[in-house]
């Protein structure tokens, strides 16, 4: 059965590594749903957070192939582990000739902020889990979404309590 | 001492124990070839095509177990070795390639002879580097050799911009490798070893499938000890040929598409497969869902990603074949499987590897049997191209040791075998190196006749000439209603579309004349009664390179055969 996995892949922070990782997914036919990359507490290491969908066998292969890469320090699969994951999303909504109050009500329920406003459009920011962002976008769809920009998921392990 | 990048490369190669490089010059590697000029310790072999240089270095590696080295220039020189890298990658060969690159200020500008070779070769190398600072060069070379030969071996490419080759720095060859992210596991986990022994003890119908991992970890002796002590029958994949001698009593030959009937029947009936250093390639498994339906699988491999990729292993053991087998050998007991062995021996009796003689025609299998007879007891190395002759060779040639049979298994590269024979001969000047070829494959790298001549390499080229791209023709005959699309190499404008080809007497090109043009002796054999005498003269009596053009039965098929995607006990046995 297919399910989404968030993989945190710690890699050497060198040029070309991102293309190697994405190339591995392409050449072996695995589908990346989202990918985000950034430096970590150790500047020689970057963290790639990859959202990938597949059955257990495929995910196992993805992890093994990622581990096999010489530049990979560590691969963490957050499925079954306590973790926090969020995504940032900007969306521009067409407001021309429309009442903004309903949009703003939905936004406030979803803890979304207005970050820009113009004569014909309004830009919202939401930082939430991927599913919640998908719900939010669905609700706003009827108002006319002009543009969406999503960061991809980032995740971190939960602190022990 | 301060030296140029080019000189650092040469000195680093010596530190790695390299004494032979295959290299083709060009603009971006002139400094490197200049540093090689007149060097007494490094022998430079100039092929006539970079691809052939890559294959020769690959075969040098397969024959010796040491990394082979190829040097090519930027752009087309580098792209020409891509096939050689892919060939080495799929067969886990520690080939180390050095390419020139345009100077760094020109990278990314579509400069003359610029190609992003690290980008191009990433999917077909174990690792690759673009060197940006001469100070990193020695460390990178050290790492490249270490990565190539450790763990599951594989090709590594180092791309060196010409300004790095020309820049100078202090040469210090690092003593230690520091790679925090790469640490292959060599020892099998003791718990898993214990479980394996238990599974073997409980098994009634076990089979060992040994692959190229046995060859690369030098585990032939350990494998033989394991098979001797346990009495379990052994089949070897194409890459594992030679891991046990062909005449080993419990040997089943090769499994899979053109494997022996008894190897395939044994696998399909087995209750336990002990897979060592092999990766369940589709040419071995046939239809995966119906492969070995009753068998539990113990999968031993140094590459964790090979385990569970195609088939789930009931017991995975990550480790080096030599170590894991040694661990197993300490406690392995004779298996109580005499009934199983009887069953297999009956299959061996009922379905031997065979062929039908046909009048005065020269059957390729007969040629190979004659070669066996003539070369018995000699230090022989065989190389092959890809296609029918390759499978006949895998089936019929008698091997007595590992690293004796060099062939492109995974990628199936036509044009591999001839340069491979050159690489093997360079590695072992005294060995009898025989390159078995088809007429199609040979023409993919025939320019290397010049290399053979220039370096006085006594390689023997045996062309099993049927004027066809025979393996594809065989598929067309069996599965495409004999529509011989683009497989007859004699076809010209005067030929009718539908042509059985059987009585055709056109032979093209004239391989004997071709050899002559390069100053190499060539003999043509068209009669069965000439086969032994001419082979004897060419392979045994003559001390020089010889090309043999042997006109074999045009439409002989490789049998037995399992059609692609079928279960491996669904075997075609059509002997004509």
Explain how this protein is built.
The complex is a heterodimer of chains A (161) and B (576). Chain A has 161 residues and is α+β, with helices and mostly antiparallel strands. Chain A has 2 domains: 3-77, Alpha-Beta Plaits (2-Layer Sandwich), CATH 3.30.70; 83-157, Alpha-Beta Plaits, CATH 3.30.70.1150. Chain A is built from 4 helices and 8 strands; from the N terminus they run E-H-E-E-H-E-E-H-E-E-H-E. A 4-stranded antiparallel sheet of chain A has the order 2-3-1-4, covered by helices on one side. In chain A, strands 6-7-5-8 form a 4-stranded antiparallel sheet. In chain A, a hairpin with a 3-residue loop joins strand 6 (113-117) and strand 7 (121-128). The longest helix of chain A is centred in the middle third of the chain and has 13 residues, at 56-68. Chain A is elongated, with a radius of gyration of 18 Å. Chain B is of the alpha/beta class and 576 residues long. Chain B has 3 domains: 2-170, Thiamin diphosphate (ThDP)-binding fold, Pyr/PP domains (Rossmann fold), CATH 3.40.50; 190-350, TPP-binding domain (Rossmann fold, 3-Layer(aba) Sandwich); 364-551, Thiamin diphosphate (ThDP)-binding fold, Pyr/PP domains (Rossmann fold, 3-Layer(aba) Sandwich), CATH 3.40.50.970. Helix content of chain B is 36%, strand content 15%. Chain B has a 6-stranded parallel sheet, with helices on both faces. A 6-stranded parallel sheet of chain B has the order 15-14-16-17-19-18, with helices on both faces. In chain B, helix 7 links the parallel strand 6 and strand 7 (156-161). In chain B, helix 12 (261-269) runs antiparallel to helix 15 (338-350). The longest helix of chain B has 16 residues, at 134-149. Chain B is globular. Chains A and B meet through helix 1 and helix 2 of A and loops of B.
């Amino acid at each position: 059965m297919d399910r989404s996995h968030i993989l945190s892949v710690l890699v050497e922070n060198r040029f070309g590594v991102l293309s190697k990782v994405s190339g591995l997914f392409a050449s072996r036919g695995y589908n990346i749903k989202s990918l985000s990359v950034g430096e970590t507490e150790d500047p020689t290491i970057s963290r790639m957070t990859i959202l990938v969908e597949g059955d257990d066998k495929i995910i196992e292969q993805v992890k093994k192939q990622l581990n096999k890469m010489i530049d990979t320090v560590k691969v963490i699969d957050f499925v079954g582990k306590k973790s926090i994951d969020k995504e940032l999303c900007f969306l521009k909504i067409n407001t021309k000739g429309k009442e903004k109050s309903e949009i703003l009500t939905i936004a406030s329920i979803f803890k979304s902020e207005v970050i820009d406003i113009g004569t014909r459009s309004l830009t919202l920011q939401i930082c939430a889990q991927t599913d919640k962002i998908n719900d939010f976008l669905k609700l706003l769809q009827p108002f006319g979404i002009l543009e969406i920009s999503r960061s991809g998921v980032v995740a971190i392990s939960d602190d022990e309590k | 001492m301060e030296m140029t990048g080019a000189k650092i490369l040469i000195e680093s190669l010596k530190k790695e124990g390299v004494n032979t490089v295959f290299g083709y010059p060009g603009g971006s590697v002139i400094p490197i070839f200049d540093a090689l000029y007149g060097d007494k310790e490094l022998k430079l072999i100039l092929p006539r095509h970079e691809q052939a240089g890559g294959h020769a270095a690959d075969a040098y590696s397969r024959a010796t177990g040491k990394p082979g080295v190829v040097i090519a220039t930027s752009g087309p020189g580098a792209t020409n070795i891509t096939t050689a890298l892919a060939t080495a990658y799929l067969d886990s060969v520690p080939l180390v390639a050095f390419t020139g690159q345009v100077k760094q200020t020109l990278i990314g500008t579509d400069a003359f002879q610029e190609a992003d070779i690290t980008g191009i070769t990433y999917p077909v190398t174990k690792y690759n580097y673009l060197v940006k600072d001469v100070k990193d060069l020695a460390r990178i070379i050290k790492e490249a050799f270490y990565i190539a030969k450790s763990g599951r071996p594989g090709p590594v490419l180092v791309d060196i911009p010409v300004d790095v080759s020309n820049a100078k720095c202090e040469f210090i060859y690092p003593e230690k490798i520091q790679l925090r992210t790469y640490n292959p596991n060599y020892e099998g986990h003791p718990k898993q070893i214990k479980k394996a022994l238990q599974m073997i003890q409980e098994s009634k119908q076990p089979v060992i499938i040994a692959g190229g991992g046995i060859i690369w970890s030098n585990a032939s002796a350990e494998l033989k000890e394991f098979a001797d002590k346990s009495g379990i029958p052994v089949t070897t994949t194409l890459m594992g040929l030679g891991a046990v001698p062909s005449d080993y009593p419990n040997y089943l030959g090769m499994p899979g598409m053109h494997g022996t009937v008894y190897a395939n029947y044994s696998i399909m009936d087995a209750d336990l497969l002990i897979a060592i250093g092999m990766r369940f390639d589709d040419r071995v498994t046939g239809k995966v869902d119906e492969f070995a339906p009753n068998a539990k699988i113990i999968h031993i491999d140094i590459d964790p990603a090979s385990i569970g990729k195609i088939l789930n292993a009931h017991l995975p053991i990550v480790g080096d074949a030599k170590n894991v087998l040694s661990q197993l050998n300490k406690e392995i007991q004779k298996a109580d499987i005499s009934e199983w062995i009887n069953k297999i021996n009956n299959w061996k009796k009922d379905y031997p590897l065979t062929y039908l003689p046909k009048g005065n025609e020269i059957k390729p299998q007969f040629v190979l049997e004659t070669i066996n007879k003539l070369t018995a007891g000699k230090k022989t190395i065989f190389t092959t191209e890809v296609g029918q002759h390759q499978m006949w060779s895998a089936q019929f040639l008698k091997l007595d040791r590992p690293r004796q049979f060099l062939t492109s298994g995974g990628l199936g590269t036509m044009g591999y075998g001839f340069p491979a024979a050159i690489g093997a001969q360079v590695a072992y000047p005294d060995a009898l190196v025989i390159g078995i070829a088809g007429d199609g494959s040979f023409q993919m790298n025939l320019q290397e006749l010049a290399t053979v001549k220039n370096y006085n390499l006594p390689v023997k080229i045996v062309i099993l000439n049927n004027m066809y791209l025979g393996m594809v023709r065989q598929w067309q005959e069996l599965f495409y209603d004999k529509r011989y699309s683009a497989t007859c190499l004699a076809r010209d404008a005067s030929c009718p579309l539908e042509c059985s080809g059987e009585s055709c007497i056109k032979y093209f090109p004239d391989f004997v004349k071709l050899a002559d043009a390069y100053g190499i002796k060539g003999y043509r054999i068209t009669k069965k009664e000439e086969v032994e005498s001419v082979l004897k003269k060419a392979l045994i009596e003559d001390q020089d390179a010889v090309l043999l053009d042997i006109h074999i039965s045009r439409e002989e098929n490789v049998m037995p055969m399992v059609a692609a995607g079928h279960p491996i006990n669904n075997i075609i046995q059509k002997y004509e």
